[in-house]
Amino acid sequence: MNDSLLSFIKSTPLQELPWRYAKERGVSVWIKREDLIHSACPGNKWYKLIYNLVERDQTPDYLISFGGPYSNHIHALAQVGKLLGITTVGIIRGFYADNLTPTLIDCRNLGMELIFVSKNTWKQKDSEQYQLKLKDSYSNAYIIPEGGANSAGVKGCFLIGQSIRRQWNSLVQTNERQNCSPVQVYLACGTGTTMAGVICGLDPTFEVHGISALKGENTLTQAISAFVAELEPASKIKWQVHHDYHLGGYAKITDELVEFIKCFENEHQILLDPVYTAKVLFAIKARIDRGIIREGERVIVIHTGGIQGRRGYDQFNNHV
Ligand SMILES: Cc1ncc(COP(=O)(O)O)c(C=O)c1O
Predict the structure, then answer these.
(1) pLDDT tens, residue by residue, 71-86
(2) Which of 27, 107, 168, 303 is most buried by its number of CB atoms within 10 A?
(3) pTM exceeds 0.85 for this model
């Protein structure tokens, strides 16, 4: 199934973002539109999942993975399963059978089997015992970790970095822009899988900044280092994870963020997801404000999709 799957991956635009706020302060911003990679399954999830399948010699009978009630990853898995004709099973944290979220309704309609588990079972999900139990119940199953966080996921996200590097190089040649400072690539981090892949796909004319969507995620830097060391041990790219822009924690929002998202969407007609990419743009604004990103500097922000998750917030249901 390998080669046919790779043909699903196409190039997404790297667009200059005419963001008044940044422009007025002399900062140039581009946006890599991974939200446009696939209409059914947009964003970084697409790269992680497709690559997980590319790496397999045989088509599995079941694709199994794990996620929360609004999980982009579970939603993407259901879409990819439907597209490829493979049965999917979603192990969901918490009991939502009588109260399905819009994400889970989509998954069920796409044919995914949903299994709801307690916090305790959830904690065991990566244990050998639990995984064996799953394999016993679903023969010829391929089990993908939560968030697609494995080496194949990193390889898939390598393609995002590689695409940015190629597009940027042709942009520089076309416009004859000369500037010695590294181009700053910003993206959201959950497990850090996407960031690790992006780092590996770039070269040292770029530096990479990850904005953690989670509070107190102390192992993120370690996880990214390990993934990078595995795929691109000689990588010389400077990178850093920033832990101070989660706005209170995973999926937490503030009035200021909501206002920011609405203004941004009105200005650019690009939808943002409040959990990941909106916080990245919000962080970039804060860093321009504080003089950390300065006049003359160039920023590329990766839009990693996740728009389906907006349905968890009443604030956005009627907007744009
Ligand atoms: C929309 C979106 N952006 C970014 C991320 C972060 O990706 P990663 O887990 O690879 O760090 C995720 C998932 O966690 C996501 O769903």
Answers:
(1) 999 999 999 999 999 9
(2) 303
(3) yes
Closest CA to 293 of 33, 213, 301: 301
**What's the pLDDT score for residue 216?**
82
CA of 259 to the centre of ligand 1 (A): 22
Q: What is the pLDDT of residues 157-193, one digit of tens each?
A: 999 999 999 999 998 876 555 667 899 999 999 999 9
- Ligand 1 atom closest to 210 (CA): 11
Q: Which CATH code, of 3.40.228.10, 3.40.190.10, 3.30.160.40, 3.40.50.1100, is assigned to 44-147?
A: 3.40.50.1100
Of 301, 304, 310, the residue with max ligand 1 atoms within 8 A of its CB, to mutate for a pocket test, comes to 304
How remote is the CA of residue 128 from the centroid of ligand 1, in Å? 25
- Which residue has the CA at smallest separation from atom 1 of ligand 1? 306
DSSP 3-state assignment of 202? coil
The CATH architecture of the domain made up of 2-41+150-316 is 3-Layer(aba) Sandwich (3.40)
